[in-house]
Amino acid sequence: MLLLPFLEQQSLYDQYDFDEPWDSPKNSTLAPMMPQVYRCPSDTLSGLSETSYAMIVGPKTISNGASATKIQEITDGTSNTILVVEAAGGGINWLDPRDLEAERISYLVNDPVDGGILSEHADGANVLLCDGSTMFLRGAADPKDVRAMCSVSGGETVDRYAIEFGTNADW
After folding, report:
1. Do 29 and 104 sit in the same domain of this protein?
2. In terms of domains, do 6 and 46 share one?
């Protein structure tokens, strides 16, 4: 909801009642008005009012649920830290403030059993980084590297080229 004014959706934002639950009768009338940007064009798994995207939250991620992370606390670098992932078919209504819990997903890209990072792209999923850029996580990306990219200050070294493009052995 808080992004709507920055997506040229001020009038939709103004209709949302922040004093009521997201699924109150009043707010529920907005469900069919989901902006197209909240849905990946390739996503056929999600329902009509369900988003294709979610944040991963939990210890050492961009949001621990209790407080906001300041930009200077992202010591791994904003271009190396994942903010939002594709979560096609996650059943998350776009109005619902639900996220993916860091401790409950496997970090395997496109693992249909996991319910975490999932898209309908043939070999991976798109993610939004904290600097506002996007990258494509290959389906064969090492889950340890993906998890490291979800950490704001773990100090891990990740080979982004291998995550995005693979190794020579993959060609």
Report:
1. no
2. no
40 and 20 in one domain?
Answer: no
Q: What is the pLDDT of residues 131-170, one digit of tens each?
A: 999 999 999 899 999 999 999 999 988 888 878 776 554 4
pTM over 0.85: yes
Q: Tell me the Cα Rg of the chain.
A: 16
Letter for the amino acid at 80? N
Exposure string over 72-96, b if 16+ CB within 10 A, otherwise e: eebebeeebbbbbbbbbbbebbbbb
| Dist CA 140 CA 121 (whole Å) | 13
**Which of 71, 157, 56, 153 has its CA nearest to residue 109?**
56
For residues 10 and 63, membership in a common domain is answered with no
Domain count for the chain: 2
Residue 11's φ and ψ, nearest 5 degrees, are: -65, -35
What are the Cα distances from residue 131, in Å, to 59, 110, 120, 147? 20, 24, 25, 18
Phi, psi of 28 (to 5 degrees): -60, -25
